[in-house]
Amino acid sequence: MHLSRPPRSTTALRLAGLLASALLAAPALAADTPAPIAWTAARIEAAGVRTQQLSAGAGQAGAGLVLQGQVELPPQATELLSSPLAGVVQQVLVAPGQRVKAGEVVARLTSPELLSWQRELLQAQSQARLAASKLARDEQLYAEGIIPGQRLQDSRAASEQAQLALQERRQALQALGLAGGALQAQLALRAAAAGTVLELSALPGQRLEAGMPVARIARSGQLALVLQATPEQAGRLRVGDTLSIAGCTSPARLTAITPQLNSANQSVQLRADFTAAEDCLRLQQFVQATVQAAPAQAGAATTLSVPAQAVVRQEGKAYVFVRTHQGFVPTAVELGPQGNGAWQVRSGLKAGDEVAVSGTAALKGAWLGLGSEGK
Fold it and tell me: CA-to-CA distance for 5 and 281, rounded, in angstroms?
């Protein structure tokens, strides 16, 4: 009796099926551990890939952003020293770029008008004394029943008017730094606060009218940084954010985010104040500022967030490209809520990871094997 064997063709079909299954499973295994995208620096630059290092914070989306800008002098930090009276410049005691202290004499003027002001003060003092004496006499006469009450009221009004006139003249001279006393025709113009002389508008021998400028002074410790940001970056920033400035140990603080765009380059203008007594910045200097992560509060759970443009989707999952020594690795992440142009990351990343925030379309194409594979 002969046993029947399965046909040779059936065995071959079974082997072919097993081989096909193995081949179909291979891409799935490879997808679980994606190979790094090892590009050269030139290829990375050509693809427009930019990266950002993640830092732990209380969901601060703007942490790590690098902004470019320029140092300016805010209007409130500019002191314009002008001549309060008409006169002739006798002496200029400072030069542009020189530092001055509060109360330091910048220039001296000779003003005949100053003599008139002092003479009027002396006359007001005399009138006030006379009115006070008359009031005292009339009060005595009224108490004795010699004069009517109306005359006493007139004397009181005259005395009050004389005192007001005296105060007005005295305060006018005090504003000039004079307290009265002996007549003098020379007036010293002093800096109201410590700072640096930016510009001199008067020279010795020059005649000035009242209100004409003499010097412009930049007060110390008050500088502004005018920075540029894209609309997406501006959406991740908040007034009060702290900025570290290249070359400075003290930080700046973001004080304004303008609501309109620059029509020329579609950028958003930001303003930050730098008030530290540190000599590390100069007017019109170009600077680079980095947004610092807000310190985590005690007991508060720190979170990570990534810019929205750093996230790519593939087969219903979210990925970011993490830069390593081997290249850019597509890394699956679990995302939380979105806000201010960024996604909160629940898992898949850690503080210190460097992720691609631009050029992600090119990286995704290389990951999926689309286009050229050239390095």
Answer: 92
For the ranges 92-96, 223-227, 361-365, 371-375, the lowest mean pLDDT is seen at: 371-375
As a whole number of angstroms, the distance between CA 318 and CA 33 comes to 15
How far does Cα 261 stand from its chain's mean position? 17
Which of 97, 110, 339 has the alpha carbon at shortest distance from 196?
97
Q: Which domains does the chain have, with CATH numbers?
A: 34-64+299-370 (2.40.420.20), 65-74+222-292 (2.40.30.170), 80-108+189-218 (2.40.50.100), 112-184 (1.10.287.470)
The token duo for 166 is 């005296």
Burial of 237 from C-beta contacts in 10 A (0-12 / 13-18 / 19+): buried
Distance CA 280, CA 319 (A): 41
pTM above 0.85, yes or no: no
Residue 139: burial class (beta carbons within 10 Å; 0-12, 13-18, 19+): middle
The answer to whether 100 and 195 have CB atoms below 8 angstroms apart is yes
Residue 356 and residue 310 in contact, taking contact as beta carbons nearer than 8 Å: yes
Q: What tokens were used for 163?
A: 């005192």
Cβ pair 362, 49 in contact under 8 A: yes
H-type helices in the chain, by residue range?
8-32, 41-46, 112-143, 149-175, 231-234, 360-367
| Greatest distance between any 2 Cα atoms in the chain | 166
Q: What is the DSSP letter of 34?
A: P
Condensed to tens digits (0 to 9), the pLDDT of residues 259-302 reads: 889 888 899 999 999 988 888 888 899 999 998 866 555 444 56
Helix residue ranges per DSSP H, 181-272: 231-234
Nearest to 345 by CA among 353, 336, 354: 336
Q: Where do we find the tokens 């000035």?
A: 208
Dist. CA 317–CA 312, nearest whole Å: 8
* Mean pLDDT, all residues of the chain: 83
More confident site: 25 or 334: 334
